[in-house]
Design goal:
It is a single chain. By secondary structure, the chain is an all-alpha fold. It has one domain (about 1-120). The protein has helices at about 1-5, 10-35, 45, 65-70, 75-90, 95-115, 120. The longest helix is centred in the first third of the chain and has 26 residues, at about 10-35. It starts with a helix and ends in a 10-residue tail after the last helix.
């Protein structure tokens, strides 16, 4: 994922949308399983991880519809496919997959929280060196 995101200079908003789609699908499957087995799971799995930063203040008003018109659907499809194939290839359980994606989600949400305007939504995701 790191190589693909860096190679395609994927904007923050596109990575966020792809991750959210995968996490939502996995959560639906997990919740169905938990309900049928009358079990529960840790909040660490079920909920987004808390952020360690204060959200930046912004006076920008940028409609979501405008964002959706600008994203590159093909680039997002490539990342989506890579995530799906990787999770299948490593034979990840639903919980393992969710935990892996939650770490990415945390990174993306942190950067989204620091965005001060719509232009930063389209900045490439900044992945730490040790990621």
């Amino acid at each position: 994922m790191v190589n693909l995101i860096n190679q395609l200079s994927m904007p923050l908003v596109e990575v966020a949308l792809v991750l959210q789609k995968h996490i939502a699908a996995l959560m639906t499957t997990l919740q169905e399983h938990l309900d049928s087995a009358q079990q529960s799971a840790s909040e660490h799995i079920l909920l987004p991880w808390p952020l360690d930063v204060e959200a930046a203040e912004s006076n920008a008003n940028f409609p979501v519809e405008k964002v959706m018109k600008v994203v590159d659907a093909q680039r997002m499809d490539i990342l989506e496919t890579l995530i799906r194939v990787t999770l299948i290839e490593i034979d990840a359980s639903i919980i393992e997959a969710l935990l892996a994606l939650r770490s990415w989600e945390h990174l993306v949400r942190t950067q989204l929280a620091l965005a001060k305007g719509p232009g930063q939504l389209f900045s490439p995701l900044d992945i730490p060196e040790d990621w």
